[in-house]
Amino acid sequence: MNLALRVGRRLGVFVVSLLGASLLIFLVTHALPGDVAQVLLGTDATPEALAQLRAQLGLDRPLPVQYLEWIGGMLTGDFGHSHLNGQSVLALLAPRIAVTLWLVLFGLVGSLLIALPAGMVAALKRRSWPGFTISAAAQVGMAIPVFWGGILLVLVFSVWLRWLPANGYVPLLKNPGQWASHLVLPAITLAAVQAAVLIRYVRSAFLEVLDEDYYRTARSIGWTPMRALLRHGVRNAAISLVTVLGLQLSSVLVGAIVVESVFTLPGLGSLLLMSVDRRDLVVVQGTVMFLVLAVLLISALVDFSYLLIDPRQSSRRAATQGAGSR
Amino acid sequence: MSLLDVRDLQVSFGRSRTEAVRGVSFSLAAGQRLGVIGESGSGKTVTALAVMGLLPEYAHVAGSVRLGGSEIVGLDESGLARLRGNTVSMVFQEPMTALDPTMRVGRQVAEVLRLHQGAESGPARQRVIAMLDEVGLDDPERVADAFPHQLSGGQRQRAILAMALINSPDLVICDEPTTALDVTVQALVLAKLDEVLDASGAACLFISHDLAVVSQVCDQVLVMLDGRIVESGTVDRLFTAPEHPYTRGLVATAQLDRAEPGQRLPTVDDFYAGAPHG
Asked: Can you give the CATH number for the domain in which B53 is found?
């Protein structure tokens, strides 16, 4: 397929998904019971005062108008302003994006560092104890809720051993050492939970490779099983793993939100929870919209990474040509 | 001393110990070519994989396989890895899937050299191209730079042949190397195999279900049936005076051109109705 066509089609999907997501986010947030006027004025406010405040904030207008206004604002780079304190949503998001970004990045990299070797060994030694042990550990890991895993780590490393802080955050530029020590436990929590899920995918991807003819060919020319798998298995397994990673990304974000609240990290997750609690819908919408944008962007990147990993994807034309000689 | 010496080889699989090979013995001298013929399930591929040490881990192997003086049965992975690609190499049945789809063909062929000789990539490439040329691939440079999916089945099988021969092994095992190819390409690949085996002086264990194909490459043949060798001898002897009824059936089906016009073509079943029970 033509690359330009492919990019164009992907872009179309991207825009449509974004629009669909925005509509869904808007409808769901407006279906929440209670509103920001109630929160601002308290439970004993008069209906008149509530109505007046709603009119002031523009909350009494028809939903389609509010939706279009929100969308229009975002197109011009204005994600709206918090009803509670008038701060712009983008200004609220900006300092928190870095926190969540670090957490997700380390969580993802950490989970790969655990899951890739573990899944590979689990596949290669599937009939002996290393394989059984890894599969069992992954099973147990999957059953552990994120928040419980986080609390366990805090108990061991913060309360008993006193090696690492239990909560809080220090920006990287302020104090790199402090920054790292505050991120270690949250990142490990997120990585461990993700790794437990990923190990199973990695294992089955490598099990497939073990059944392939090219793996047997690699063995027949003198590679040992482990080296044959490293040399000819990783890239082939990556083709199916990249898809899984793309799909897992949203669950990593959800995990990050939970981890942020366990370790009271000032990231997007804690902003989201706080804003839902206060019915600050503009902030909720803006935050979720930003997360959706990030997920969609990354899954588009994942799509194009196939071109780099799998040569069959990028050279369809040559395939028909090649059969020509004799 | 013979290059390959198989003594009373027995292979069974799984907990039920399903027997695939039941006491096979044969030997192969350096440079000799031996055909193994039999229907699917007769144990010929299992025998070949036992010689490579490539049987799955749930296979139970008994007996002895001596290759170039070392015992294969019970040898550990690193010992086997040293022999594979160096003393013995293998050409598999399915050219479409036997190469890594994500790696250029030339690099895959060169891997054999790097693995066993530590060859540098520059000189290795020269030898790869020469070898691809030798197995009859036009434009070997282009083939070396191609990914497997850009080549035809016949081209791929010849690239695999190059891979099996580039490190000058003493023994090349071919497991139905042309079965997946169409007839004209089959004849071409067989002719090339014959040529490169002659040039390298390697011995060959050639497995096929087709006596006509075997006779193009080998002069000695074993006939396998239900995990046993039922007959062996020169191709000529087998064609002129087959002893076992199964072999007679094979010979008749390999010489369909001799069937009387208007008559039903012969099948193996006309000669051999299956193993007697018990």
From this structure: 3.40.50.300
